[in-house]
UniProtKB/TrEMBL annotation:
It comes from the Bacteria. InterPro entries: DUF2913. This is DUF2913 family protein.
Length: 213
């Protein structure tokens, strides 16, 4: 019996985004250039049909439903083409190995950009960082030590961030990392958002995406 390959969320998302953009190009060949509103309308209908026909993995169905709803309420403002392009850009270069070194490089970038870097303290309970509003990235030292082994990330790791998320997304893209969207709930560092980094970049939901590279 042959092995059955199970598609990951990352693979399913990249496949969907790549196919959607390819269809936009294919159907527009030889015609007058579409306006952003027309592109958004086409992609919205394409995603609706994709849901009905189950063209893509169930792993991305909730994403598709959300984007269709955004397109219906925002029209061209939903920027579906831009979103799909960002997904392809980020996910096509996301790595699965060497995440510890890449995380350290991201932290170096944050520090060089003027962010406060805090990775030497244990976060026990709820903490407050005296940064006077300075952008900052905080990782519990105990969690960092247990999450990394042999140059790899072996456990989920939470990054507590206060700063421009687009800056963080650009640094993540630069180093082939996929960082989870910011979560304000049950954050252990006051005035920060919790962002998740997973072993093998295996997030189960859409990563933080940079508008530009």
């Amino acid at each position: 019996m042959s092995d059955v390959k199970v598609q990951t969320y990352n693979q399913a998302l990249l496949e969907m985004a790549t196919a959607s953009l390819a269809e936009l190009v294919r159907t527009g060949a030889g015609r007058a250039a579409r306006t952003p509103a027309q592109e958004s309308h086409f992609l919205s209908l394409w995603l609706v049909d994709s849901l009905k026909e189950k063209r893509f993995s169930r792993l991305v169905m909730e994403d598709l439903k959300g984007w269709v709803q955004q397109a219906r309420t925002q029209g061209a403002g939903a920027d579906l083409k831009g979103l799909l392009e960002r997904i392809v850009r980020h996910y096509s270069q996301a790595v699965t190995q060497g995440l510890e070194a890449r995380l350290m490089a991201l932290l170096d970038d944050c520090e060089e950009a003027g962010w406060l870097r805090v990775t030497q303290s244990v976060i026990d309970g709820r903490a407050k960082l005296a940064s006077q509003g300075q952008a900052s990235i905080v990782i519990c030292s105990a969690e960092l030590a247990s999450a990394c082994a042999g140059g790899e990330l072996v456990k989920p790791l939470t990054l507590y961030v206060r700063g421009d998320e687009q800056v963080l997304a650009r640094f993540a893209y630069r180093h082939g990392l996929l960082i989870g969207q910011g979560n304000k709930k049950q954050v252990r560092v006051k005035h920060h958002k919790a962002h998740l980094l997973m072993p093998g970049n295996a997030l189960s939901a859409l990563a933080l995406l940079a508008v530009d590279g």
